[in-house]
Amino acid sequence: MIVYGIPNCNTVKKSLDWLKENKIDFEFHDFKKKGITAEKLNEWCKVFGWETVLNRKGLTWKKLSKEDQANINNQEKAIAYLIDNTSAIKRPVIEKEGQPLLISFDESLYAKTLA
């Protein structure tokens, strides 16, 4: 299992803590340091939808002008933006056996899906 995120994100921290408490093995992929590919983002968008993968609640997104935000209006533009601005990816994303499984952190969903 791979957990994608950035280590200083509170939601990622909650997720990692839950996984450790439940003794679930995982590998952590820090996309601030390791980056992320368009191919990987496309896979996530297929499962979760590009509008879910793009985190519109974070500071990275909010720093954009309203015009720039309005211009990111499809998956292709969102992915181009996310490759350069990995902090705007909703996180964490959990993959199991190479398949996107969960996005963000919801304890009950984690318990149902992973435990």
UniProtKB/TrEMBL annotation:
Gene3D superfamilies, sorted: Glutaredoxin (3.40.30.10)
Entry's transmembrane regions: none
Domain of life: Bacteria
Family: Belongs to the ArsC family.
PANTHER family: ARSENATE REDUCTASE, PROTEIN YFFB
Entry protein name: Arsenate reductase
